[in-house]
Every structure is written in structure tokens, then in C-alpha cells.
Amino acid sequence: SKVLVTGATGFIGIWVTRTLLEKGYSVRGTVRSASKGKYLTDYFKSYGEKFETAIVEDISKDGAFDEAVKGVDGIEHVASPFHLKADDPQELIGPAVNGTLGILNSALRNNPTLKRVVITSSCAAVLEILPEPKVFSELDWNKQSVQQVEEQGKAASNITKYRASKTLAERAAWEFYEKHKAEITWDVVVINPPFVFGPVIHEVASRDTLNTSSSDLLKVLLTPSTSPSAMSSETLTTTGSCWIDVRDLAEGHAKALEVPDAGGERIIISAGPYVWQDWIDVAQGLSPPVALPAHQKLAVGVPGGGKGAVHKIQYDTAKAGRILGMKYRSREDTIRAALEDVVTRGW
Ligand code: NDP
Fold it and tell me: What is the whole-number distance in angstroms between the Cα of residue 12 and the centre of ligand 1?
């Protein structure tokens, strides 16, 4: 069967595409331009006609997906802006919300045989910053970021603007689904991942344009020999988040398409919590080590300083285990892959 993957040129989208192709699906990947599509058609050329691209210049435009949705059995809606440089929150909220509603409306109008739409939301739509540590579940919604953006507008922090965009987009998806449930042949599954790390296989012009989560990890792991690590010891040993390997997340997206019981569910997929120092320790402990290029050095930070750290945000992942049978890669596997990219791409 055939699946439409939006944002196929991105860090996660290309892995979702690759995983589906490996499982025997045909994939149509959306790209913003023919030139961006060329990298993908080259990358997936061994799949011949099983991979094709569709040009969707801007997901926020009305009817942007009207053609792309035609004839597919499933949709993986991955595209949404994830950067932390928006001045006006609408730069993120616009494409996030209109892209999600747009693809659902196009599917409603133009695909009478569609079976399922999987949407990549985020733990950003789940978590709130609270004084006490909390284990969040699918019942939790990030109302806090939405409220802060409403109150502060441009003055809200960049991460708050992003979190609000993901919350509003997911909320819009569920409202759409509730409203149209009775008239559609398909259902909706939402996947909520935390920070995503792992091997980068999409086109990246230079390290400056690397996707946000991969870039954040490399900033912590690598210390340019001329300057100290960007984070203070205190930040390294006390702050972090939860994580998942991009390959596991892609597997989760494939399962979300296939498992009947996933229909209508919001599912958090997370391998567990970290503080940034943990990743440095994992990188330092790799055996055999990854031989980095001469201009890059592994950071040292405060070895072992993350042990016993209080993880303020954790997730209950029972549902992902029960419904999707999720299994997670080790931290070593993820970090080795991320460092090998530094070698092969010359970052
Ligand atoms: P990337 O920036 O690598 O990918 C984003 C993709 O969306 C790109 O293909 C991008 O195209 C496309 N896109 C963004 N805005 C538009 C637009 N207006 N019109 C058309 N295409 C657009 O980020 P990720 O792969 O990390 O993110 C993918 C999804 O995963 C997003 O929904 C993100 O919110 C979610 N997510 C990511 C996490 C992470 O840690 N990486 C964590 C949780 C959720 P182009 O490159 O051409 O701009």
C-alpha cells in the first residue's frame, strides 16, 4: 500500500520514509521544491517507482495538500516548523495549525479510501514547567505555553512559542477528528515524542542548518578545541529532557499506521530522561571510541555529575508499550551514530 509522508526532507521525515520503504510500502514524500526532492530521489533510488515526491511549497497555504493526498492508503504528517528563531509566534503556529488542518481537510475532500492519518505531535504539547517533578501522561496538555503566548506574544520565549504551536496543532487535529468522525473512512493517531536524536540522513548544507534537536546534542558533545563547552557545569548536570532515537521513532510511526488499536489514540513514545552530562559520559565511554576529526574534541563536562539528578519531566510510556510494542535503542547506539555523522559529514 501507499503512504504519503509530509516533511520527507527533514530529520524525522526521511527516517519515516526509509522505514516504510524497508517494510515494503510505496511512499510519496512531500518536498518544498524539485531541487529539494532530488536528494531524496537519489537517496531512495534503489526503490525505483516505489518512491516518488510531490511538491508542497508551503503547508500553510489553503489546499496545499489537495493533490498530494490523492490515492494513498495512509498519511504520516511529519512536517511542521521546528526552529527557535521565530519573532512572531505566528511564524510557527501558522504552519503548524494550518498544515495539520490543511492535510485533514484535503484528505476529507480528495481521498475517499484513506485508512489512517498519523500525526507527529510532540511532548511539547504535553509537558508544563512546574515547581515539582512530574510523570506526564497522554492525559496531560500543555495549556501553559499557549497561555503564555497569548499573554506575551512576541516577548514569549522561543521554546514557548514552539510548544504552543505543537499544542495548538494537535488540539486542532483532535477537534477536526471529533467533528468529522462519522463521515470519514479513516481515523487519526497522534505520536508525541520528546527530544529526538540519532543518525542524520537528510540533506544538510552545513552544520549551521542542522535540525534543532541534532544541533543541540552536538553543541553539548563537541567542544571546539578553542573554546569551552557552551553550557555551564550546573546546566549540564541539572537540565535535560526525555529522548528517543529517530530510528525507534520511525518504527513507532510505521506501527502507528498498522496497529488497529492505535486508532483514535494519542501516544507518548519516549526512551527515558536525561541530563545533558549523561550524553557526554556516554560519548566518553564508547568502546571502541569514535575517531573524531582533528578540529573536534569530545566535551568532558563534569564526569558522572548527572548521576542522581532530579528529572523534572518524565513520561508514562505504558501506552506505547501496550499498543505499539515499542522497544528502545541504547544511549550508546544513539550517540555512536550521532558522532559517526560528525566524521562522515565533516562537521
Ligand atoms: P526538521 O526541521 O528537520 O523537519 C521539518 C520538516 O517540515 C522539513 O521537511 C521542512 O521542510 C518541513 N516544513 C516545515 N515548515 C514547512 C512549511 N511551511 N511548508 C512546507 N514544509 C515545511 O525537523 P524534525 O524532523 O526534527 O521535525 C519533524 C516533526 O517532528 C515536526 O512536526 C516536529 O515538531 C516534530 N518533533 C521533533 C522533535 C525533535 O526533537 N526533532 C521532537 C518532537 C516532535 P524544509 O526543510 O524544506 O523547510
Answer: 7
Q: How far is CA 35 from CA 32, 39, 53, 54, 170, in A?
A: 9, 8, 11, 12, 30
Q: Are 222 and 36 in contact (CB under 8 A)?
A: no
Distance 82 CA to ligand 1 centre (A): 5
Longest dimension (CA), the chain: 62
Strand 26-31 with 2-6, pairing: parallel
User: Mutation test of ligand 1: which of 6, 55, 78 has the most ligand atoms closer than 8 Å to its C-beta?
Assistant: 78
pLDDT tens-digit profile of 303-344?
999 999 999 999 999 999 999 999 999 999 999 999 999 999
Q: What are phi and psi of 114, to 5 degrees?
A: -60, 145
Mutate to test the pocket of ligand 1, among 5, 12, 58, 167 (most ligand atoms within 8 A of CB): 12
Domains of the chain: 2-198+243-270+314-328 (3.40.50.720)
ipTM above 0.90, yes or no: yes
Mutation pick for ligand 1 pocket among 5, 60, 80 (CB with most ligand atoms within 8 Å): 80
Ligand 1: which residues within 6 Å by Cβ?
Answer: 7, 9-13, 32, 36, 56, 58-60, 78-82, 95, 120, 122, 166, 193, 195-196, 211, 213
Cis bond leading into 260, ω under 30°? no
Distance CA 204, CA 224 (A): 20
The atom of ligand 1 lying closest to the CA of 58 is: 19
CA dist 128 and 143 (Å) reads: 8
Measured in degrees and rounded to the nearest 5, phi and psi for residue 239 equal -115, 150
Instruction: State if pTM tops 0.95.
Output: yes
3-state secondary structure of 192: strand
